[in-house]
Amino acid sequence: xxxxxxxxxxxxxxxxxxxxxxxxxxxxxxxxxxxxxxxxxxxxxxxxxxxxxxxxxxxxxxxxxxxxxxxxxxxxxxxxxxxxxxxxxxxxxxxxxxxxxxxxxxxxxxxxxxxxxxxxxxxxxxxxxxxxxxxxxxxxxxxxxxxxxxxxxxxxxxxx
Length: 160
Hints:
Elements (H helix, E strand, L loop, with lengths): L3 H42 L3 H43 L3 H7 L3 H4 L7 H7 L2 H4 L5 H24 L3
Helix pairs in contact: 1-2, 1-7, 2-7
C-alpha cells in the first residue's frame, strides 16, 4: 500500500491537473467564441446570409462541445475531490468539508454592502451557494453563448 504522502500527492495532482484542464478549456472556448463573433460581424457587414447562418450554427455546436467537455472535466475533478475528502479524514483535516459547507462564504462576501448577498445565501447555504461556484458560471456563459449563436444564425437566416 502506498504511503499516505504518496496517496495525497497523487490525489492532489489529479485534482490540480483536471481543474486546470477545465479552466484551460474555458479559455479556448472564449478565444474561439471571439473569433466566431468577429467573423459573424463581417458576415453582417457584407450581408452574407449563408456565412451568418453557418457561423451561428458553428457557434452553437462549439458551445455544445465545450459544455460536454466541461461536464467530463467536472467528473474528473470530482474524483480528485472525493479522494482528497477521504485523505483529509485520515489526516484529521477539514478543508474540503469546510468548502462543501461554505464555511468561509461570509468572509468572502464581507465587502458587499450590509452582506445582503450573504444574508440571502445564508438562509440555505448549500442550495443557494451553488450559484456562487465556478462550474455554475462557466456553464451559464457556455450555454448563453450557444443560445446567442443559434439566435444569430436565425437572424442571419431571416436576412438580418
